[in-house]
Amino acid sequence: MITGVSILRAGETMEQALTAVCKDIRLGKILIQTNHDTGEPELHYLRLPKDISEDYVILMDSTVSTGAAALMAVRVLLDHDVQEDKIFLLSLLMAEMGVHSVAYAFPKVRIITTAVDKKVNDEFHIIPGIGNFGDRYFGTDAPSDWYESDEGMDY
């Protein structure tokens, strides 16, 4: 069986397409947010289907910059007895740093992305990136100071 797990909030943007292709797929959610004081990821919410340990898991996040949230999400899945070689990290855009972080820590996790950008700025946003994909998709506004250091970037 296949289970899709979204890293909230932007990972949810992929759920509709996944359920359209895999009609009987089960879904789970993980909310991991970066602590702005420490820069460390923190787990705030977890809902996984029962008996996920036997499933192939498609872990969804629209963008992966440093890989910190993805690393924590993979650890959570491993803690729920999902086998590393049954985890697929699916992302629209990744930074090179995130690809290397995940691949080094979890070499059996399969990474699937449409593109890899080389740089991450001081706020850990992918450069040139695509801006905040969750805000774009859901039509919400990010605080304007998130983009001050990205002036002149073509999102």
UniProtKB/TrEMBL annotation:
GO terms for biological process: pyrimidine-containing compound salvage. Residues 2-140 form the Phosphoribosyltransferase domain. Gene3D superfamilies: 3.40.50.2020. Keywords: ATP-binding, Kinase, Nucleotide-binding, Transferase. Pathway: Pyrimidine metabolism; UMP biosynthesis via salvage pathway; UMP from uridine: step 1/1. Pfam families: UPRTase (PF14681). Belongs to the uridine kinase family. This is uridine/cytidine kinase.
